[in-house]
Amino acid sequence: MPIFSCEEAINEFEALTRDAGRVQQDTLKRILELNANAEYLNHFGLNGRTDVQSYKSCIPLCVHSDLEPYIQRIADGDSSPLLTGEPITSLSLSSGTTQGKPKFVPFTDELLENTLQISQTSYAFRNREYPIGKGKKALQFVYSSKQVETKGGIHATTATTNLYKRPRYKEGMKDMQTQCCSPDEVVFGPDFNQSLYCHLLYGLIYSDEIQQVFAPFAHSLVGAFQRFEEVWEDLCADIRDGVLSEKITVPSIREAVAKVLKPNPELADSIQKKCMGLSNWYGVIPALWPNAKYVYGIMTGSMEPYLKKLRHYAGHLPLISADYGASEGWVGANINPTVPPEQVTYAVLPQTGYFEFIPLEKPKAEEMENSASIHYIESDPVGLTEVEIGKIYEVVMTTFGGLYRYRLGDVVKIAGFHNSTPELQFICRRSLVLSINIDKNTEKDLQLAVEEAAKLLEAEKVEIMDFTSSIEKSSDPGRYVIFWELSSDANEDVLQSCANCLDLAFLDAGYLGSRKIKTIGPLELRILKKGTFKEILDHFLTLGGAVSQFKTPRFVNPLNIKVLQILKSNTTKSYLKTIYGDT
Hints:
Elements: H1 6-18, H2 20-34, H3 39-43, H4 52-58, H5 64-75, E1 90-93, E2 104-107, H6 109-129, E3 137-140, E4 148-149, E5 155-158, H7 159-164, H8 167-175, E6 179-180, H9 184-187, H10 192-205, E7 210-217, H11 218-241, H12 251-258, H13 265-276, H14 284-288, E8 294-298, H15 307-314, E9 319-321, E10 324-326, E11 329-333, E12 346-348, E13 354-361, E14 377-378, E15 382-383, E16 392-398, E17 406-418, E18 421-429, H16 443-454, E19 464-472, E20 479-486, H17 492-505, H18 509-516, E21 524-528, H19 532-542, H20 561-569, E22 571-576
Parallel strand pairs: 1-5, 3-6, 3-7, 7-8, 8-9, 20-21
Antiparallel strand pairs: 1-2, 4-5, 10-11, 11-12, 12-18, 13-14, 13-15, 13-16, 16-17, 17-18, 19-20, 21-22
Helix pairs in contact: 1-6, 6-8, 10-11, 11-13, 11-15, 16-17, 19-20
């Protein structure tokens, strides 16, 4: 593999984005040539044509359910060219945290190459602002999941595991000075808690060499340092004595750790002194990893609620949001790393796929409505270079891996252009979260409501550790149910005020009207025992998921019976909203 050059990566990006329209045409042509004999394409009469006009006129927009019959045939062992020209030998599992059922997505070598391309691009811009020294390491909280084999012999696992299994990916990341300080035995360990403990241990052993701290999601970073608060004394004991805790029972992990864990009382004393000198763990990351340049991971969308806690742990270190993509493929790179996560934009790499954008507009009567709710009028999709600054769109992607005019379900705003490629600001998932009848509230609406109500807890010095929602239809009328796990107990009157505030914070016109005429009942706030969301995570892991992929479901579908049972059994208090004349 050639030595990676940041300067060359930036120059290549600049060249590709100067004529993004031409690159898009070439990219679509290459995708369609590679997959010309795919059954899906020929079913719609494309018949080997590769021009944009023929493609858009023949191939309809699709969602995942449209592709499921083809993906199921792949999983069952059908090796004929269904979605791609070459047989698909690996599948990725999406998280499935909302519906309770993961979905299969094709994983191909092209997706691996796209991952490296986008990683190299964002790393080059990041390294220009925050240079990483040669031979340095990264503290990475990454975890594999167990691999399953479908009935047809196809390997299925998470996208993260599919990447970390491949030497090509690991070599590419090492070339970019982002080598994980933990060995494969820890990354691929069968027990999440033991892997997390050892990630922290390796990070401390190599503390002087760590120059970046990473997890795929902000949620995983916060969880890692919450765990550190609980086990730091055990970690110090291991380092002081050079003996790994008996709680770590996986033989391969113990064997790997034994190679690097030697008695080091001086390091243990230093860690202990630093930990005891912290005020409520503020700035623990730079305190223990003094050479770290930044903290890195996906921090937009459903990860935004974790930023306050993550900033607490990171102290003065900058938080940099990772690139924009999904299990289906990559969309854009963060080329402005100094911008805070709340304002981050992503430049689309025109060579990684073919992109279209569905214009979304609110009806005139709702233009001033302060809500993210889904009241959009759609227009015909436009190309990558045809989008307009300030306007809202849904992303549509065509990938090398057999997804054609695939509606990603993400709402983005065009923040500007870099050369001729747009820079996207992620707004929210378009998928509906809370709805009983004519009301429509998204994940973003829920987040805004929770943030508004959380202000009432500040005087109590109580934090919302995590939250989710569901709808209760067993009563008539149905109602919204919001679940909170808190850092400590709060005053009863304050929590009742929070319930009231939550209900008033949903500004969707359908919801407000339904509440006033009582076709939707009073919102219910349920307080959960500490550790409830950890229990949900554990359940997710039993389904074959990986911690690095896990995202707390902001809405629990009524069909997801197991997660609802966990929430119900861990509810300690309940508060019904009492505005609108409710009793």
